[in-house]
């Protein structure tokens, strides 16, 4: 693992789960980790309920936009965390992969997104702990 690892969070629309995960990792790791997120079929905007749920914990993701998953981005990442993107996620030898089974916040209100946000925080904290141990 390099001194500054790169983590890519991938979900289908890059509008909810992956954006919240990237927001948590940026918040918790600061500049120690390069944080990326993308989607196999990106939405036009980030899910408003995800934005509100993150705002409630002091994390602003309003400046983020859904991005298309590109081969080069995945190839340049040390850790790839998938969240329901299925077979569209590229696989590269030597990469660390995690597949997080999480409810999709699409179409849900902020009340339903809060538990997803909190589960993502727990997983991001564990990932960050693992990354720090590997450096």
Ranges with pLDDT <50 over ≥5 residues? none
Q: What percentage of residues falls in helices of 4 or more residues?
A: 25-40%
Structural class by SSE content:
alpha/beta
Largest sheet: 4 strands, parallel
How confident overall, as mean pLDDT? Answer: 93
Element-level helix/strand string: EHEHHEEH
Q: How far apart are the first and last residues' alpha carbons, in Å?
A: 6 Å
> Which band does the percent of strand residues land in?
5-15%
- Let me know the number of strands: 4
Could you characterize the architecture of this molecule?
The chain has 135 residues and is an alpha/beta fold. The protein is 39% helix and 15% strand. It contains four helices and four strands. A four-stranded parallel β-sheet has the order 2-1-3-4, covered by helices on one side. Strand 1, helix 1 and strand 2 (34-39) form a beta-alpha-beta unit. It starts with 5 loop residues before the first strand and ends with a helix. The model has no long low-confidence stretch (mean pLDDT 93).
Per-chain topology:
Layout: E1 6-11, H1 17-29, E2 34-39, H2 48-56, H3 71-75, E3 79-82, E4 96-99, H4 110-134
Parallel strand pairs: 1-2, 1-3, 3-4
Helix pairs in contact: 1-4, 2-4
């Amino acid at each position: 693992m390099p001194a500054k690892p790169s983590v890519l969070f991938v979900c289908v629309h890059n509008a909810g789960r992956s954006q919240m995960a990237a927001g948590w990792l940026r918040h918790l790791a600061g500049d120690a980790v390069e944080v990326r997120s993308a989607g196999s079929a990106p939405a036009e905007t980030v899910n408003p309920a995800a934005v509100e749920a993150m705002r409630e914990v002091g994390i602003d993701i309003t400046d983020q936009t859904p991005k298309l998953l590109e081969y080069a981005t995945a190839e340049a990442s040390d850790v790839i965390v998938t969240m329901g993107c299925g077979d569209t996620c590229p696989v590269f030898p030597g990469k660390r992969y995690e597949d997080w089974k999480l409810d999709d916040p699409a179409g849900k209100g902020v009340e339903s997104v809060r538990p997803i946000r909190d589960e993502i925080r727990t997983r991001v904290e564990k990932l960050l702990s693992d990354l720090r141990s590997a450096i």
